[in-house]
Write a structure and sequence with these properties.
There is one protein chain. The protein has a five-stranded mixed β-sheet with strand order 2-1-5-3-4, with helices on both faces. The protein has two domains: 74 residues, Ubiquitin-like (UB roll) (Roll), CATH 3.10.20.30; 67 residues, [2Fe-2S]-binding domain (DNA polymerase, domain 1), CATH 1.10.150. It contains six helices and five strands; from the N terminus they run ββαβββααααα. The protein is of the alpha+beta class. InterPro entries: 2Fe-2S-bd, 2Fe-2S-bd_dom_sf, 2Fe-2S_ferredoxin-like_sf, 2Fe-2S_ferredoxin-type, Beta-grasp_dom_sf, Diverse_Oxidoreductases. One of its GO terms (molecular function) is oxidoreductase activity. Pfam families: Fer2, Fer2_2. Keywords: 2Fe-2S, Iron, Iron-sulfur, Metal-binding, Oxidoreductase. This is Carbon-monoxide dehydrogenase small subunit.
Length: 160
């Protein structure tokens, strides 16, 4: 079947089987390999993308169920000139990544949080990101990056 959706602002289509997961469709059907697949069970969050503005773990959603919708992947997070978005830059500036495997999902989850709550507390950031697993960083710098991207200052983070 042919599946069409708007991905990162462009109408895109590809032939796929009805049982194809959105993560596979994006990676293999459309060549957008920034969306990572870590667990296939929604536990790790590496595959997080936005569907119609909402964060979705793409490893458990069928591509056909997203037909006609708007999808944003990590590739769509950069500024129009190709420079890093505020969130991506904050992750870089605050060392919110190490191996980078979880980073696309963390950035996408963080963007969803900041769209809903532009000035979250540290506890709100930690709560929102609990569905995303990072095996390298210990989360401190990821939280610091999200707080930095929000423009918020935290005395606790500044003191550390």
């Amino acid at each position: 079947m042919k599946v069409t959706m708007t991905v990162n602002g462009k109408a895109m289509s590809a032939e796929t089987e009805g049982r194809t997961l959105l993560s596979s469709f994006l990676r293999e059907g459309l060549g957008l390999t920034g969306t990572h697949v870590g667990c296939d069970t929604t536990q790790c969050g590496a595959c997080t993308v936005h569907v119609d503005g909402q964060p979705v773990k793409s490893c458990t959603v069928l591509a056909q169920d997203v037909a006609g919708k708007t999808v944003t992947t990590i590739e769509g997070m950069a500024n129009p000139d190709g420079s890093l978005s505020v969130i991506q830059q904050a992750f870089q500036d605050n060392h919110g990544l190490q191996c980078g495997f979880c980073t696309p999902g963390m950035v996408m989850a963080s963007a969803a949080l900041l769209a809903e709550n532009p000035h979250p507390t540290e506890d709100e950031v930690r709560h929102h990101l609990k569905g995303n697993i990072c095996r390298c960083t210990g989360y401190h710098n990821i939280v610091k990056a999200v707080m930095s991207a929000s423009g918020a200052t935290s005395q606790k983070l500044a003191a550390e």
